[in-house]
Amino acid sequence: MKKLTFVLLALCTWGFGANADVNLIASLSTVSSAIQPSGTTVTIKDPASLVNLFIGTRNGGHTFPGATLPHGMVKVGMDTNSPGNHAGYDGDPQFNATGFSQLHDDGTGGAVPLSLFKLWAFTSCGQFDTFEECQTSIAGRNVPRKNLSTGLPDDFAEPGYFASNLSTGIRVELTATRRAAIHRYTFPSGTRNPRMVVDITNDGQQSSTDPIMDLDSETGRVSGGASFAASFGPGRYRAFTCVDFKGDGFELGSPREFGAWLGNFPVRQTTNLHQLYTSFRDELGSLLTFAPNGNGTTSILARVGVSFISPEQACSNAEEEIPDFDFERVKSSAWAQWNELLGRIQVKTDNVDPEIVSLLYSSSYRTHISPADYTGENPKWNSTEPYYDSFYCNWDTYRTLYSWMALHDPDTFARIVRGLINIQQHEGWLPECRGATAQHFIQGGSNGDPILGEFFVKFHEHASALNVSASALYAALLADAEDQPPNWDLQGRQANMWKKLGYIPSDVWEPSGTNTKQVSRTLEYAFSDFTISQVAKILGKKADGTKYAKRAGNFVNVFNPNTTVPGHDDIKGMMQPRFADGTFNFTDPRHCSVNDPEQSTCFLNAANVDGFYEGSPIVYTQYVPQDTARLIQLQGGNQKFIDRLNFIFNENFFDSTDEPSQQIPFMYHYANRPGLSTQRSRQVIAEFYNTSSNGLPGNDDSGAMGSYVAFYLAGLYPLPATRQFLLSSPFFPEISFFNPIFGKTTTIKANNFKGNPTNGTGGTVFVKGVKIDGVPWGSNCFLDWNAFIKGSVVELDLTDNINVTCGKGSDALPPSLSTGGYD
Ligand SMILES: *[C@@H]1O[C@H](CO)[C@@H](O)[C@H](O)[C@H]1NC(C)=O
Ligand SMILES: *[C@@H]1O[C@H](CO)[C@@H](O)[C@H](O)[C@H]1NC(C)=O
Ligand SMILES: *[C@@H]1O[C@H](CO)[C@@H](O)[C@H](O)[C@H]1NC(C)=O
Ligand SMILES: *[C@@H]1O[C@H](CO)[C@@H](O)[C@H](O)[C@H]1NC(C)=O
Ligand SMILES: *[C@@H]1O[C@H](CO)[C@@H](O)[C@H](O)[C@H]1NC(C)=O
Ligand SMILES: *[C@@H]1O[C@H](CO)[C@@H](O)[C@H](O)[C@H]1NC(C)=O
Ligand SMILES: *[C@@H]1O[C@H](CO)[C@@H](O)[C@H](O)[C@H]1NC(C)=O
Ligand SMILES: *[C@@H]1O[C@H](CO)[C@@H](O)[C@H](O)[C@H]1NC(C)=O
Ligand SMILES: *[C@@H]1O[C@H](CO)[C@@H](O)[C@H](O)[C@H]1NC(C)=O
Ligand SMILES: *[C@@H]1O[C@H](CO)[C@@H](O)[C@H](O)[C@H]1NC(C)=O
Ligand SMILES: *[C@@H]1O[C@H](CO)[C@@H](O)[C@H](O)[C@H]1NC(C)=O
Q1: Tens of pLDDT along 212-234?
Q2: What is the rounded CA–CA span in Å between residue 166 and residue 605?
Q3: CB within 6 Å of ligand 3 — which residues?
């Protein structure tokens, strides 16, 4: 999802600066110190040290560089006054710090999500007296960070830890458990009145209502919360916090001074909001002054619990998870969890640019930020099942994120699936997009379906061991496929029209949702039904398998064979909007691309009637992952298909910022030209993805882009809800995946690896032969999941000849629905 990307690109021309090179040098030095000499099984001992968290923190990536556990609920980080502060932070030093808040998302568009309960520290702020000024408001707290000699801000981040030096001389350090954070504020020596601010209401959207706040003047404990607006939907949610302070290495005692603040005015001795005569302010919280640690350096620890249930639960979360206020213990525990998880993927690095190694682990890292584990924090119903949130959105992540997770983290995958099913059982449909416990707007369709399908196809034999109920999973899929929801803008599909016509017509208005994105929704519904057919077949439900496979073929219903691209009569046949009577409307195939003469965008907009969401008709015409063989036929055969793919790249219709384009570089495989896919996918990495802070072309979309880059670097591309991975060559002489549920490691070896061409062009990178466990494998174009179940050694024979093929016979081509399917 990009949404705000265009605005940001316009604002952020400064994003192409010297810091790209500086980051590269920084990552080079970390990499070389962390990689062991090759020859040992574990070549990357500390993969967490290779993660660059600042990738995408400028230029609209909206990535979150703060501290979190893998899929942790608390994501504590710096907030800045940047217009692109969706994850709080901005890597550009011109933007100032405004607080350190406990909750964020990663890589989203929409309005700023979460960004709640900011803490702040003052060395001084005038008098603490009623209606004396102290710059407590968010605008008042606008403080530059210190800069390094490189011109970059003096900020540091590694998995589970973030630190910054503010120009006030205060150093801030942050680390996290699942539902709590611990902050350390180190004041300049000689600070006589160290003061701490707790901000209850600022959420980055100024949306708060009904604030509550209580301050214990003995202990200094502050608890409170408010109601806030969701970021990408119509709903609201309530959230609560509980903050305790402790001296780091000294007795802090009771606060010397305490009170509330409203805007820039402290209200001394006020311990709760009921005492305040002001009716409503969206700028309020608590202010406390503590005694310093003698005349030396004062470090104050702030332990912050968060809850979506109550302030009491926010306190108990903090007490349970950080009983000891031990910052270093929490930090090293977070690091260890990340290191173990990331270390399940191992690479050999001979002849590999260290920047590529860092790009792999940084990208893989970002696939484990969202969705977040909110188990125990669901205010809407009680359940013993896991509860995950921050599905933002499944439309972004279903294509690659869960397949990457399937390779190395099936336990988390299973818990997420259980959480999705539980939501369906209580709300009727699987979530498409969800944040802060509220339903968000759907983007393409019911994209929880391919996620459940992916889990079931890959792990059905382990489903009961992982506590995933096959019948509940199937029932959840059928609800999406068959039942029209009260409002398909928020969940489910326009199911009745889909069942009646086999496409979503442009000209039929129903009361229960907005009649937009009809063509892209048709394509998404077809793919989702394909994933349901895959599950049905495994469950032995033959009739359903056939029924949904047939519905998966409905993509042809919006294919108009006569539509051409203006000025390119040879590019003929396009997905187009269709009326209920069967006739077609016309949307310029260039619509929403950079070549669109009208420069239109296809973001979420209830007034759009063009039929497409975040992608041009040219891009969407390639979007039939379940049946590329049929698509090739519709487009006039292999050569015409290849010409069209080349046209898409050469004429700049490929859109690296948006998910519908993600598989296009790999599509040459289906036309028996895998070398062209290898080269295109490598060119895409070279052109658009790197380890600098502007190294993402658009929003990270909750790790969707991270997972896509990780697959490209691994030389694989997944097709969700199948056993198929398209095969190219990895950027490493060897890459392996340890899968805990199978207890097996699968290794892909590029036997005659000679390094990666820097611009992605040429090189000895084309696959001309494959062996699995020493036995020749029948295709150079795809691997079967079986290789990963067994823990195989996959050996690739590389050549510099781009004219390689998939191999002999039609079985060497990757499967498609119309050529026999995926059984
Ligand atoms: C750091 O650099 C930025 C951008 O040049 C500047 O706005 C900011 O004031 C600097 N910080 C300090 C403490 O000088
Ligand atoms: C950051 O703070 C500095 C110093 O107060 C100020 O000059 C600058 O305008 C601020 N930058 C922003 C983006 O607010
Ligand atoms: C901040 O300053 C301290 C010294 O006071 C230094 O050790 C640290 O590296 C600096 N940078 C960060 C991000 O903490
Ligand atoms: C701080 O320093 C002053 C002057 O040296 C001394 O009188 C005072 O006792 C010191 N205070 C503490 C708390 O150590
Ligand atoms: C969940 O259970 C608790 C404890 O019994 C109860 O107080 C709460 O109201 C329940 N929540 C919901 C949404 O039913
Ligand atoms: C599955 O459920 C059982 C019974 O509640 C529990 O003992 C077991 O730990 C669960 N396993 C997983 C992987 O969640
Ligand atoms: C495409 O053009 C052919 C030949 O003119 C015509 O027979 C056919 O009906 C057209 N199809 C559509 C969908 O317009
Ligand atoms: C047909 O498409 C045009 C161009 O996008 C649009 O202006 C018009 O509203 C569409 N007609 C209907 C009935 O949707
Ligand atoms: C890094 O990637 C960004 C985003 O695609 C691009 O704009 C920038 O030019 C790249 N930088 C380098 C040094 O390649
Ligand atoms: C890519 O790099 C190779 C080797 O340096 C060079 O020969 C070739 O011209 C480059 N191609 C492009 C498209 O930049
Ligand atoms: C690949 O095929 C093209 C077209 O047939 C040919 O021009 C080219 O020389 C071939 N490349 C190699 C390395 O054989």
Answers
A1: 999 999 999 999 999 999 999 99
A2: 40
A3: 154-156, 163-165, 171
